[in-house]
Specification:
It catalyses: S-hexadecanoyl-L-cysteinyl-[protein] + H2O = L-cysteinyl-[protein] + hexadecanoate + H(+). Pfam families: Hydrolase_4. Belongs to the AB hydrolase superfamily. ABHD17 family. It is built from 9 helices and 11 strands. The chain is an alpha/beta fold. It has one domain: Alpha/Beta hydrolase fold, catalytic domain (Rossmann fold). The strands form 2 sheets. Strands 4-5-7-6-8-9-10-11 form an 8-stranded mixed beta sheet, with helices on both faces. Helix 8 links the parallel strand 10 and strand 11. The protein is globular. The termini are far apart. The C terminus is likely disordered.
């Protein structure tokens, strides 16, 4: 599909006419779940005792969310790409959160290091779930000395609901709120990371909450759903799904874009277009991985090198500049207040009565 004909538009938008269903047709491919979450134990708030309980939790059954004292354990199925050792499983802390759209979604905190430099909120790509991504999170977080928090979109893995654009935005919002409330992580220690379809909720969150993170990483991003389906599309149509191109300029943290030059799923031109729309003060050197496709960027050495440079060089430099700018503003305000002559309050002088003291 290289041209945007009237027939194409009719087929895509008139059957069915809902943008969320169009997005589901074009983008969402939930895999068969590769893991399940089981209740490991229940804490009694009154006395702090722990009652052992081990039962499987399916999508349809009710249970508590991240605010209740229930601990879960993750059990990988044979479909998982990697069978983890006990030491790996000990690093994984799964839990549930309930979104504003009333879906209970599965989240995973990956404790890679006791003293993390940052916490990465990772929105994974399509056709995978947390069970398939867990081993990658452990390796990446250990290499970067960062802990990783991820989640499954509605309809993926152990998460309830159906995959949709609106649900995806609610999913990342609920996960972000949970890491603030559950782990008390400040915004200055949060990095948002989106891969492929995961760049959509990442850009949406960062564009709506200007101080939610210190940096934003966009790995193989897309400009919009229409522009992926129809590469010749030059504008955002009223029913376009995932219009990241119209949101990215509102991001107020530094943005790192990573894209393979031979990506045949989302062309590298999407990365170029998004980079050009990033607010200039927040642009940093992107990574165009020569010869890389859509699913093999991580295999190239410059991938981890660029992430390490972001963490160890780019973020500290930007943070230092921000501090210097704030200090300059404070000094200017102070000097301005000192140079302004004090305003004297007017004094009402009442003359003494000439009759009261007269003899």
């Amino acid at each position: 599909m290289n041209t945007l004909s009237v027939r194409d538009l009719c087929c895509l938008f008139c059957c069915p006419p809902l943008p969320s269903r169009i997005a589901a047709k074009l983008a969402f491919l939930p895999p068969e779940p590769t893991y399940s979450l089981h209740v490991a134990d229940i804490l009694t708030p009154s006395n702090g005792s722990t009652g052992q309980k081990d039962s499987s939790l399916s999508k349809g059954k009710s249970s508590s969310d991240a605010n209740t004292p229930i601990r879960y354990k993750i059990v990988f199925s044979e479909k998982a790409e990697w069978q983890h050792s006990q030491s790996d499983i000990a690093k994984l802390e799964p839990y549930f959160v309930t979104t504003s759209r009333h879906n209970r979604i599965a989240c995973l905190y990956v404790n890679c290091t006791p003293n993390p430099k940052y916490h990465i909120l990772f929105s994974h790509g399509n056709a995978v779930d947390l069970g398939q991504m867990a081993s990658f999170f452990i390796v990446l977080g250990t290499r970067l000395q960062c802990n990783i928090i991820s989640y499954d979109y509605s309809g993926y893995g152990a998460s309830q609901g159906k995959a949709s654009e609106k649900n995806m935005y609610a999913d990342i919002e609920a996960t972000y709120n949970s890491i603030k409330q559950r782990y008390h992580i400040p915004e200055s220690k949060v990095i948002l990371y989106g891969q492929s379809i995961g760049t959509v909720p990442t850009i949406d969150l960062a564009s709506r909450r200007s101080e939610c993170c210190i940096a934003c990483i966009l790995h193989s991003p897309l400009t919009s759903g229409m522009r992926v389906a129809f590469p010749d599309a030059k504008r955002t149509w009223c029913c376009d799904a995932f219009p990241s191109i119209d949101k990215i300029h509102r991001i107020r943290s530094i943005v790192l874009i990573i894209h393979g030059t031979e990506d045949d799923v989302i062309d590298v031109s999407h990365g170029f277009a998004l980079y050009n729309r990033v607010h200039t003060p927040h642009q940093i050197e992107p990574l165009w991985v020569d010869g890389a496709g859509h699913n093999d960027i991580e295999a190239h050495g410059q991938y981890v090198e660029r992430l390490l440079r972001l963490i160890d060089v780019d973020i500290p430099q930007i943070y230092l500049k921000k501090q210097q700018s704030e200090q300059q503003q404070q000094q200017q305000q102070l000097s301005s207040s000192m140079s302004t002559p004090p305003t004297l309050a007017s004094t009402l002088i009442i003359p003494a009565s000439t009759t009261s003291g007269a003899n």
